[in-house]
Protein backbone atom coordinates (compact mmCIF):
# COMPACT_ATOMS: atom_id res chain seq x y z
CA UNK A 1 0.00 0.00 0.00
CA UNK A 2 1.44 3.40 -0.97
CA UNK A 3 2.50 5.59 1.91
CA UNK A 4 1.30 9.18 2.15
CA UNK A 5 3.11 12.49 1.83
CA UNK A 6 1.97 16.10 1.63
CA UNK A 7 2.71 19.42 -0.09
CA UNK A 8 2.97 22.45 2.20
CA UNK A 9 2.23 25.80 0.55
CA UNK A 10 3.78 29.00 1.81
CA UNK A 11 4.32 32.51 0.49
CA UNK A 12 7.61 31.51 -1.14
CA UNK A 13 7.49 28.19 -2.92
CA UNK A 14 5.69 24.89 -2.39
CA UNK A 15 7.75 22.59 -0.17
CA UNK A 16 7.29 18.90 -0.87
CA UNK A 17 7.54 16.54 2.10
CA UNK A 18 7.18 12.80 1.63
CA UNK A 19 6.48 10.98 4.90
CA UNK A 20 7.77 7.61 3.76
CA UNK A 21 11.44 6.87 4.38
CA UNK A 22 14.12 5.84 1.94
CA UNK A 23 16.14 7.31 -0.90
CA UNK A 24 13.23 7.03 -3.36
CA UNK A 25 11.06 9.33 -1.25
CA UNK A 26 13.90 11.80 -0.78
CA UNK A 27 14.52 11.80 -4.52
CA UNK A 28 10.81 12.45 -5.21
CA UNK A 29 10.87 15.41 -2.83
CA UNK A 30 14.02 16.83 -4.43
CA UNK A 31 12.62 16.42 -7.96
CA UNK A 32 9.32 18.16 -7.15
CA UNK A 33 11.14 20.92 -5.24
CA UNK A 34 13.40 21.64 -8.22
CA UNK A 35 10.54 21.56 -10.70
CA UNK A 36 8.45 23.91 -8.59
CA UNK A 37 11.33 26.38 -8.29
CA UNK A 38 11.91 26.17 -12.04
CA UNK A 39 8.24 26.85 -12.79
CA UNK A 40 8.29 29.95 -10.58
CA UNK A 41 11.52 31.26 -12.11
CA UNK A 42 10.37 30.76 -15.69
CA UNK A 43 6.99 32.36 -14.97
CA UNK A 44 8.75 35.40 -13.49
CA UNK A 45 11.07 35.55 -16.51
CA UNK A 46 8.10 35.52 -18.89
CA UNK A 47 6.28 38.17 -16.88
CA UNK A 48 9.31 40.46 -16.97
CA UNK A 49 9.74 40.04 -20.73
CA UNK A 50 6.03 40.59 -21.36
CA UNK A 51 6.11 43.76 -19.25
CA UNK A 52 9.11 45.01 -21.23
CA UNK A 53 7.33 44.42 -24.55
CA UNK A 54 4.19 46.19 -23.35
CA UNK A 55 6.18 49.15 -22.00
CA UNK A 56 8.12 49.60 -25.25
CA UNK A 57 4.96 49.18 -27.33
CA UNK A 58 3.26 51.95 -25.35
CA UNK A 59 6.31 54.17 -25.87
CA UNK A 60 6.43 53.33 -29.58
CA UNK A 61 2.76 54.17 -30.06
CA UNK A 62 3.16 57.48 -28.27
CA UNK A 63 6.22 58.31 -30.37
CA UNK A 64 5.26 56.97 -33.80
CA UNK A 65 1.54 56.21 -34.12
CA UNK A 66 0.44 59.79 -34.93
CA UNK A 67 2.79 60.04 -37.92
CA UNK A 68 1.92 56.47 -38.98
CA UNK A 69 -1.72 57.56 -39.17
CA UNK A 70 -0.73 60.67 -41.14
CA UNK A 71 0.89 58.36 -43.68
CA UNK A 72 -2.29 56.30 -43.89
CA UNK A 73 -4.44 59.38 -44.47
CA UNK A 74 -2.04 60.65 -47.12
CA UNK A 75 -2.14 57.21 -48.73
CA UNK A 76 -5.95 57.38 -48.72
CA UNK A 77 -5.83 60.68 -50.62
CA UNK A 78 -3.34 59.22 -53.08
CA UNK A 79 -5.52 56.16 -53.70
CA UNK A 80 -8.61 58.30 -54.28
CA UNK A 81 -6.56 60.42 -56.67
CA UNK A 82 -5.56 57.33 -58.65
CA UNK A 83 -9.12 55.98 -58.61
CA UNK A 84 -10.31 59.22 -60.23
CA UNK A 85 -8.40 58.19 -63.38
CA UNK A 86 -9.83 54.66 -63.68
CA UNK A 87 -12.81 55.66 -65.83
CA UNK A 88 -10.80 57.94 -68.14
CA UNK A 89 -11.25 56.62 -71.67
CA UNK A 90 -7.77 57.59 -72.84
CA UNK A 91 -6.16 55.21 -70.34
CA UNK A 92 -6.60 51.77 -71.82
CA UNK A 93 -4.93 48.48 -72.56
CA UNK A 94 -1.80 47.66 -70.60
CA UNK A 95 -1.72 51.14 -69.06
CA UNK A 96 -5.22 50.66 -67.67
CA UNK A 97 -4.18 47.31 -66.24
CA UNK A 98 -1.07 48.92 -64.69
CA UNK A 99 -3.29 51.57 -63.07
CA UNK A 100 -5.57 48.94 -61.54
CA UNK A 101 -2.54 47.02 -60.28
CA UNK A 102 -1.14 50.21 -58.78
CA UNK A 103 -4.35 50.89 -56.86
CA UNK A 104 -4.50 47.32 -55.61
CA UNK A 105 -0.91 47.62 -54.42
CA UNK A 106 -1.59 50.86 -52.55
CA UNK A 107 -4.68 49.38 -50.93
CA UNK A 108 -2.62 46.40 -49.79
CA UNK A 109 -0.02 48.68 -48.21
CA UNK A 110 -2.70 50.69 -46.44
CA UNK A 111 -4.60 47.66 -45.16
CA UNK A 112 -1.43 46.02 -43.88
CA UNK A 113 -0.54 48.96 -41.65
CA UNK A 114 -1.54 48.00 -38.06
CA UNK A 115 -2.04 51.67 -37.17
CA UNK A 116 -4.38 52.38 -40.09
CA UNK A 117 -7.34 54.61 -39.07
CA UNK A 118 -8.84 54.71 -42.58
CA UNK A 119 -12.00 52.81 -43.53
CA UNK A 120 -10.66 50.94 -46.55
CA UNK A 121 -14.08 49.47 -47.30
CA UNK A 122 -15.12 52.91 -48.54
CA UNK A 123 -12.02 53.06 -50.70
CA UNK A 124 -12.71 49.66 -52.20
CA UNK A 125 -16.32 50.64 -52.88
CA UNK A 126 -15.10 53.70 -54.77
CA UNK A 127 -12.61 51.53 -56.67
CA UNK A 128 -15.34 49.06 -57.64
CA UNK A 129 -17.65 51.83 -58.81
CA UNK A 130 -14.87 53.28 -60.94
CA UNK A 131 -14.21 49.88 -62.54
CA UNK A 132 -17.91 49.40 -63.32
CA UNK A 133 -18.14 52.92 -64.77
CA UNK A 134 -15.11 52.22 -66.94
CA UNK A 135 -16.67 49.02 -68.24
CA UNK A 136 -20.02 50.64 -69.02
CA UNK A 137 -18.28 53.39 -70.99
CA UNK A 138 -16.94 50.76 -73.41
CA UNK A 139 -18.60 51.34 -76.83
CA UNK A 140 -19.24 47.62 -77.05
CA UNK A 141 -20.11 47.09 -73.40
CA UNK A 142 -20.81 43.39 -73.89
CA UNK A 143 -17.11 42.91 -74.69
CA UNK A 144 -15.40 43.88 -71.46
CA UNK A 145 -11.57 43.97 -71.58
CA UNK A 146 -10.09 40.93 -69.89
CA UNK A 147 -7.93 42.92 -67.46
CA UNK A 148 -10.97 44.86 -66.21
CA UNK A 149 -12.92 41.66 -65.69
CA UNK A 150 -10.00 40.17 -63.79
CA UNK A 151 -9.77 43.12 -61.43
CA UNK A 152 -13.51 43.20 -60.92
CA UNK A 153 -13.44 39.47 -60.13
CA UNK A 154 -10.65 40.06 -57.60
CA UNK A 155 -12.56 42.88 -55.93
CA UNK A 156 -15.74 40.79 -55.66
CA UNK A 157 -13.73 37.92 -54.14
CA UNK A 158 -12.26 40.28 -51.55
CA UNK A 159 -15.67 41.70 -50.72
CA UNK A 160 -17.25 38.27 -50.29
CA UNK A 161 -14.26 36.59 -48.66
CA UNK A 162 -14.10 33.69 -51.10
CA UNK A 163 -13.37 32.85 -54.72
CA UNK A 164 -16.34 33.59 -56.98
CA UNK A 165 -17.28 30.80 -59.38
CA UNK A 166 -18.73 32.79 -62.25
CA UNK A 167 -17.93 32.69 -65.95
CA UNK A 168 -16.89 35.89 -67.71
CA UNK A 169 -20.34 36.11 -69.31
CA UNK A 170 -22.07 35.83 -65.92
CA UNK A 171 -19.73 38.45 -64.47
CA UNK A 172 -20.56 40.86 -67.28
CA UNK A 173 -24.29 40.35 -66.55
CA UNK A 174 -23.73 41.33 -62.92
CA UNK A 175 -21.88 44.46 -64.03
CA UNK A 176 -24.75 45.59 -66.24
CA UNK A 177 -27.63 44.49 -64.03
CA UNK A 178 -27.42 45.83 -60.42
CA UNK A 179 -30.44 43.74 -59.38
CA UNK A 180 -28.75 40.52 -60.44
CA UNK A 181 -25.57 41.62 -58.67
CA UNK A 182 -27.44 42.29 -55.44
CA UNK A 183 -29.27 38.96 -55.65
CA UNK A 184 -25.95 37.16 -56.16
CA UNK A 185 -24.34 38.90 -53.17
CA UNK A 186 -27.30 38.05 -50.95
CA UNK A 187 -27.27 34.40 -51.99
CA UNK A 188 -23.55 34.03 -51.25
CA UNK A 189 -23.85 35.72 -47.85
CA UNK A 190 -26.90 33.63 -46.96
CA UNK A 191 -25.06 30.42 -47.84
CA UNK A 192 -22.08 31.44 -45.69
CA UNK A 193 -24.33 32.19 -42.72
CA UNK A 194 -26.22 28.90 -43.06
CA UNK A 195 -23.00 26.90 -43.34
CA UNK A 196 -21.47 28.56 -40.30
CA UNK A 197 -18.65 30.09 -42.32
CA UNK A 198 -15.72 31.37 -40.30
CA UNK A 199 -12.94 33.31 -42.04
CA UNK A 200 -9.34 32.28 -41.69
CA UNK A 201 -6.62 34.22 -39.93
CA UNK A 202 -5.03 35.58 -43.07
CA UNK A 203 -5.37 39.23 -43.94
CA UNK A 204 -8.00 40.41 -46.39
CA UNK A 205 -5.87 39.48 -49.37
CA UNK A 206 -5.14 35.94 -48.20
CA UNK A 207 -1.52 37.02 -47.86
CA UNK A 208 0.81 37.75 -44.98
CA UNK A 209 0.95 41.37 -43.96
CA UNK A 210 4.43 42.78 -44.60
CA UNK A 211 4.39 44.06 -41.05
CA UNK A 212 4.31 40.51 -39.68
CA UNK A 213 6.76 38.70 -41.94
CA UNK A 214 9.47 36.69 -40.24
CA UNK A 215 12.04 34.52 -41.95
CA UNK A 216 11.83 32.08 -39.04
CA UNK A 217 8.15 31.25 -39.63
CA UNK A 218 8.89 27.66 -40.64
CA UNK A 219 11.10 27.13 -37.57
CA UNK A 220 8.48 28.69 -35.30
CA UNK A 221 5.77 26.44 -36.72
CA UNK A 222 7.87 23.33 -36.01
CA UNK A 223 8.61 24.54 -32.49
CA UNK A 224 4.94 25.22 -31.78
CA UNK A 225 3.93 21.84 -33.20
CA UNK A 226 6.48 20.08 -30.97
CA UNK A 227 5.12 21.75 -27.86
CA UNK A 228 1.54 21.12 -28.90
CA UNK A 229 2.30 17.43 -29.32
CA UNK A 230 3.89 17.31 -25.87
CA UNK A 231 0.91 19.07 -24.35
CA UNK A 232 -1.51 16.64 -25.99
CA UNK A 233 0.33 13.63 -24.56
CA UNK A 234 0.00 15.02 -21.03
CA UNK A 235 -3.59 16.30 -21.14
CA UNK A 236 -4.90 12.95 -19.85
CA UNK A 237 -2.52 13.15 -16.89
CA UNK A 238 -3.75 16.64 -16.04
CA UNK A 239 -7.37 15.51 -16.27
CA UNK A 240 -6.71 12.55 -14.01
CA UNK A 241 -4.92 14.70 -11.44
CA UNK A 242 -7.65 17.33 -11.53
CA UNK A 243 -10.33 14.72 -10.88
CA UNK A 244 -8.69 13.71 -7.59
CA UNK A 245 -10.90 14.37 -4.57
CA UNK A 246 -8.21 16.47 -2.93
CA UNK A 247 -8.05 18.83 -5.91
CA UNK A 248 -11.82 19.22 -5.81
CA UNK A 249 -11.63 19.97 -2.11
CA UNK A 250 -8.86 22.49 -2.71
CA UNK A 251 -10.96 24.14 -5.42
CA UNK A 252 -13.89 24.55 -3.04
CA UNK A 253 -11.69 26.07 -0.35
CA UNK A 254 -10.21 28.54 -2.83
CA UNK A 255 -13.68 29.45 -4.13
CA UNK A 256 -14.78 30.16 -0.56
CA UNK A 257 -11.66 32.22 0.14
CA UNK A 258 -11.74 34.23 -3.09
CA UNK A 259 -15.49 34.77 -3.51
CA UNK A 260 -16.05 38.50 -4.20
CA UNK A 261 -19.39 38.60 -2.32
CA UNK A 262 -17.42 38.37 0.92
CA UNK A 263 -15.71 41.69 0.24
CA UNK A 264 -17.19 45.12 0.94
CA UNK A 265 -14.26 47.15 -0.36
CA UNK A 266 -14.83 47.85 -4.11
CA UNK A 267 -11.16 47.46 -5.04
CA UNK A 268 -10.78 44.16 -3.21
CA UNK A 269 -14.07 42.95 -4.66
CA UNK A 270 -12.82 43.68 -8.19
CA UNK A 271 -9.54 41.91 -7.45
CA UNK A 272 -11.33 38.82 -6.19
CA UNK A 273 -13.62 38.80 -9.21
CA UNK A 274 -10.51 38.49 -11.37
CA UNK A 275 -9.12 35.72 -9.16
CA UNK A 276 -12.41 33.84 -9.31
CA UNK A 277 -12.28 34.05 -13.09
CA UNK A 278 -8.78 32.50 -12.99
CA UNK A 279 -10.02 29.78 -10.67
CA UNK A 280 -13.06 29.01 -12.84
CA UNK A 281 -10.90 28.92 -15.96
CA UNK A 282 -8.52 26.46 -14.28
CA UNK A 283 -11.46 24.21 -13.50
CA UNK A 284 -12.90 24.47 -17.01
CA UNK A 285 -9.63 23.59 -18.76
CA UNK A 286 -8.65 20.98 -16.15
CA UNK A 287 -5.46 22.77 -15.04
CA UNK A 288 -4.49 21.49 -11.58
CA UNK A 289 -1.23 23.42 -11.52
CA UNK A 290 -3.13 26.71 -11.74
CA UNK A 291 -5.08 25.58 -8.66
CA UNK A 292 -1.81 24.86 -6.83
CA UNK A 293 -0.42 28.28 -7.74
CA UNK A 294 -3.50 30.03 -6.36
CA UNK A 295 -3.38 27.90 -3.24
CA UNK A 296 0.30 28.73 -2.77
CA UNK A 297 -0.59 32.41 -2.51
CA UNK A 298 -4.03 32.42 -0.88
CA UNK A 299 -4.12 29.21 1.18
CA UNK A 300 -0.59 28.99 2.66
CA UNK A 301 -1.84 26.72 5.44
CA UNK A 302 -3.25 24.10 3.06
CA UNK A 303 -1.59 20.67 2.95
CA UNK A 304 -2.12 18.40 -0.02
CA UNK A 305 -1.56 14.75 0.76
CA UNK A 306 0.20 12.76 -1.95
CA UNK A 307 0.46 9.08 -2.63
CA UNK A 308 2.97 7.66 -5.07
CA UNK A 309 0.56 7.93 -7.99
CA UNK A 310 -0.25 11.59 -7.34
CA UNK A 311 3.43 12.35 -6.92
CA UNK A 312 4.19 10.95 -10.38
CA UNK A 313 1.25 12.82 -11.88
CA UNK A 314 2.32 16.09 -10.28
CA UNK A 315 5.87 15.64 -11.57
CA UNK A 316 4.50 15.12 -15.07
CA UNK A 317 2.36 18.24 -14.83
CA UNK A 318 5.26 20.34 -13.56
CA UNK A 319 7.47 19.17 -16.41
CA UNK A 320 4.66 20.01 -18.84
CA UNK A 321 4.40 23.48 -17.31
CA UNK A 322 8.13 24.09 -17.69
CA UNK A 323 7.93 23.17 -21.39
CA UNK A 324 4.87 25.35 -21.85
CA UNK A 325 6.57 28.33 -20.19
CA UNK A 326 9.57 27.84 -22.48
CA UNK A 327 7.22 27.77 -25.48
CA UNK A 328 5.54 30.95 -24.26
CA UNK A 329 8.93 32.63 -23.90
CA UNK A 330 9.87 31.52 -27.40
CA UNK A 331 6.65 33.09 -28.68
CA UNK A 332 7.37 36.31 -26.81
CA UNK A 333 10.81 36.55 -28.40
CA UNK A 334 10.11 35.23 -31.91
CA UNK A 335 6.34 35.38 -32.37
CA UNK A 336 4.37 37.45 -34.87
CA UNK A 337 2.57 39.71 -32.41
CA UNK A 338 2.86 43.43 -33.13
CA UNK A 339 4.65 44.24 -29.87
CA UNK A 340 7.22 41.51 -30.65
CA UNK A 341 7.78 42.84 -34.18
CA UNK A 342 8.16 46.41 -32.88
CA UNK A 343 10.70 45.31 -30.27
CA UNK A 344 12.71 43.29 -32.79
CA UNK A 345 12.86 46.25 -35.17
CA UNK A 346 13.40 49.12 -32.78
CA UNK A 347 13.93 47.87 -29.22
CA UNK A 348 17.49 46.62 -29.19
CA UNK A 349 20.65 48.40 -28.16
CA UNK A 350 21.09 51.33 -25.81
CA UNK A 351 18.47 53.94 -25.04
CA UNK A 352 20.33 56.38 -27.30
CA UNK A 353 20.30 53.85 -30.17
CA UNK A 354 16.57 53.28 -29.74
CA UNK A 355 15.88 57.01 -29.74
CA UNK A 356 18.00 57.44 -32.87
CA UNK A 357 16.21 54.59 -34.64
CA UNK A 358 12.76 55.93 -33.81
CA UNK A 359 13.77 59.46 -34.81
CA UNK A 360 15.03 58.25 -38.19
CA UNK A 361 11.87 56.20 -38.67
CA UNK A 362 9.65 59.20 -37.92
CA UNK A 363 11.63 61.24 -40.41
CA UNK A 364 11.16 58.52 -43.03
CA UNK A 365 7.41 58.54 -42.38
CA UNK A 366 7.25 62.33 -42.62
CA UNK A 367 9.04 62.14 -45.94
CA UNK A 368 6.57 59.48 -47.06
CA UNK A 369 3.68 61.85 -46.33
CA UNK A 370 5.38 64.63 -48.30
CA UNK A 371 6.04 62.31 -51.24
CA UNK A 372 2.44 61.11 -51.41
CA UNK A 373 1.00 64.62 -51.27
CA UNK A 374 3.53 65.82 -53.83
CA UNK A 375 2.43 63.09 -56.24
CA UNK A 376 -1.20 64.15 -55.78
CA UNK A 377 -0.21 67.72 -56.70
CA UNK A 378 2.08 66.70 -59.53
CA UNK A 379 -0.15 64.25 -61.40
CA UNK A 380 -3.09 66.35 -62.52
CA UNK A 381 -3.64 65.17 -66.09
CA UNK A 382 -3.98 61.86 -67.88
CA UNK A 383 -0.78 62.64 -69.78
CA UNK A 384 1.09 63.12 -66.53
CA UNK A 385 -0.22 59.83 -65.12
CA UNK A 386 0.60 57.97 -68.32
CA UNK A 387 4.30 58.78 -67.85
CA UNK A 388 4.25 57.04 -64.48
CA UNK A 389 2.25 54.10 -65.84
CA UNK A 390 4.78 53.64 -68.64
CA UNK A 391 7.59 53.64 -66.09
CA UNK A 392 5.78 51.05 -64.00
CA UNK A 393 5.31 48.82 -67.02
CA UNK A 394 9.04 49.01 -67.69
CA UNK A 395 10.04 47.92 -64.23
CA UNK A 396 8.74 45.34 -61.75
CA UNK A 397 10.42 47.11 -58.85
CA UNK A 398 7.79 49.72 -58.00
CA UNK A 399 6.51 48.71 -54.59
CA UNK A 400 6.91 51.27 -51.81
CA UNK A 401 8.76 49.72 -48.88
CA UNK A 402 6.54 48.88 -45.88
CA UNK A 403 7.69 49.25 -42.28
CA UNK A 404 8.87 45.66 -41.95
CA UNK A 405 11.45 46.16 -44.72
CA UNK A 406 12.98 49.44 -43.59
CA UNK A 407 16.75 49.23 -42.87
CA UNK A 408 16.70 49.03 -39.08
CA UNK A 409 17.91 45.44 -38.84
CA UNK A 410 21.36 46.54 -37.69
CA UNK A 411 20.15 47.08 -34.13
CA UNK A 412 21.47 44.51 -31.64
CA UNK A 413 18.56 42.72 -30.01
CA UNK A 414 19.87 42.61 -26.44
CA UNK A 415 17.44 43.42 -23.65
CA UNK A 416 16.82 46.39 -21.41
CA UNK A 417 19.08 46.44 -18.38
Automatic annotation (TrEMBL):
SUPFAM superfamilies: Chaperone J-domain (SSF46565)
Recorded superkingdom: Bacteria
Coiled-coil region list: 355-382
Keywords annotated in UniProt: Chaperone, Coiled coil
InterPro entries membership: DnaJ_domain, J_dom_sf
Record's protein name: J domain-containing protein
Organism annotation: Alteromonas alba
Amino acid sequence: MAKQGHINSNSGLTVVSVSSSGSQSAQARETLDKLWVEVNKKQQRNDRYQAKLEAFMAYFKQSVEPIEQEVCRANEQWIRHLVSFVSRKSIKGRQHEALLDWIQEELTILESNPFNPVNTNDLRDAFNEAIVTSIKQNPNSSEVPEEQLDHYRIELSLMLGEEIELSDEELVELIHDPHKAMAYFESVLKHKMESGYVGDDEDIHGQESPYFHDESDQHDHSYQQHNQDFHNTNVDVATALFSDKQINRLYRQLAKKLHPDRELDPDKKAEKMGLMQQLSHARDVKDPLAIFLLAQQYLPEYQLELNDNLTVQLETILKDKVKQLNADYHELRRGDGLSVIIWQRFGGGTKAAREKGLREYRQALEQDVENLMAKCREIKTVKGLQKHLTARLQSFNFTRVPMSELPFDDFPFDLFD
